[in-house]
């Protein structure tokens, strides 16, 4: 495993310790403000509005994952429905992301499917697109089943995510082709064993481009969700060289990450969306951001030691 991945694995391991969680929650306020739009829907909508003014569209995400009870899953569903209804009133492109385990996937796949179906019944007629985020590898199979089930039921405004760090992903992509998925491609943000994921960042990056080009060649709509300047440049070069129009793909970045690049891409005429997370359950999201960027760990350490 190379150093980047060893660092990520270490941080995600330590971040799971309740004492570390308490310390970070108390001391990482600056980092939270950078990556999370706020704790309320109102704050998230304000952040989205500010992005819209700069030509960047928002993907609203009520933070939450790994719920342990049905009540909790239903409470998150209620929050997501409130988001859908609020977006329906807005003039901008309407787009929501959610996590299957937020709607009870770990409790029962049938529960998650039924809660998701209810969300889509509200979202589709209001023109709200719903993206199922992809979580860690033990949930991939079930998440793909949920996506396929929803498409087979006739929903179309729903998208899926594939992660280039998993060995299995090319096969998953090929299996999904008959569904003509609206695909978000990411590298992958979780701590995965080398039995399931490439242990080398260069291989993950190469696989990302391989999968992205394959999806474009197969005629899919692809959301390239990455901040990686080399990958963004190669996607631009490849699509120009192959004559793939800008309507066939987009770039997605995270709120607070490379905001100037988000605006630049939008000015160049690409569709750009920023993933805008909000809510009180921000800890696991923040831990993943610390794990993918050593500078963020230094910021946390500095605030812990009074710098
Ligand atoms: C819109 C969006 C949706 C996502 N959805 C999912 C999902 O459903 N499932 C999933 O597993 N993962 C998801 N991810 C996370 C993804 O898997 C990666 O962990 C994350 O994007 C970092 O990888 P990278 O492609 O940006 O490249 P990296 O190789 O990690 O980084 C490339 C460069 O980008 C910049 N950068 C990267 N991360 C940060 C950061 N946190 N802060 C500041 N600069 C940074 C740095 O300059 C870095 O050198 C999503 C990412 C985005 C942007």
Automatic annotation (TrEMBL):
Organism name: Thermus arciformis
Keyword Methyltransferase tagged: no
Cofactors required: FAD
Annotated residues for binding of substrate: 99, 288-289
Binding site for FAD: 134, 163, 187-189, 201, 226-227
Catalytic activity: L-proline + a quinone = (S)-1-pyrroline-5-carboxylate + a quinol + H(+)
A matching Pfam family: Pro_dh
EC number: 1.5.5.2
Protein name: proline dehydrogenase
MF term (GO), any: nucleotide binding
Oxidoreductase listed as a keyword: yes
Pathway(s) of this molecule: Amino-acid degradation; L-proline degradation into L-glutamate; L-glutamate from L-proline: step 1/2
């Amino acid at each position: 495993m190379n150093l980047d991945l060893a660092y990520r694995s270490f941080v995600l391991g330590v971040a799971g310790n309740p004492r570390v969680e308490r310390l970070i929650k108390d001391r990482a306020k600056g980092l939270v403000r950078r990556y999370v739009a706020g704790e309320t829907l109102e704050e998230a909508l304000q952040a989205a509005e500010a992005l819209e003014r700069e030509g960047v569209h928002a993907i609203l995400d009520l933070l939450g994952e790994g719920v342990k009870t049905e009540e909790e899953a239903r409470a998150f569903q209620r929050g997501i429905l409130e988001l859908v209804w609020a977006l329906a009133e807005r003039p901008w492109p309407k787009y929501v992301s959610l996590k299957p385990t937020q709607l009870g996937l770990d409790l029962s796949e049938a529960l998650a499917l039924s809660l998701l179906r209810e969300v889509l019944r509200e979202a589709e007629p209001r023109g709200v697109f719903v993206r199922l985020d992809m979580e860690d590898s033990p949930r991939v199979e079930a998440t793909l089943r949920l996506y396929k089930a929803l498409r087979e039921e006739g929903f179309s405004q729903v998208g899926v995510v594939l992660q280039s760090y998993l060995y299995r992903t090319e096969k998953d992509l090929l299996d999904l082709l008959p569904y003509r998925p609206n695909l978000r491609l990411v590298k992958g943000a979780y701590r995965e064993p080398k039995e399931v994921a490439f242990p080398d960042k260069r291989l993950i990056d190469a696989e990302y481009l391989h999968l992205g080009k394959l999806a474009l060649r197969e005629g899919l709509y692809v959301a390239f969700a990455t901040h990686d300047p080399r990958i963004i440049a190669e996607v631009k070069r490849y699509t120009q060289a192959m004559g793939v129009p800008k309507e066939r793909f987009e770039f997605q970045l995270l709120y607070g990450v490379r905001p100037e690049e988000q605006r630049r891409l939008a000015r160049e005429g690409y569709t750009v969306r920023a993933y805008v997370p909000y809510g009180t359950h921000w800890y696991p999201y923040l831990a993943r951001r610390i794990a993918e960027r050593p500078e963020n760990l230094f910021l946390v350490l500095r605030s812990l030691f009074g710098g």
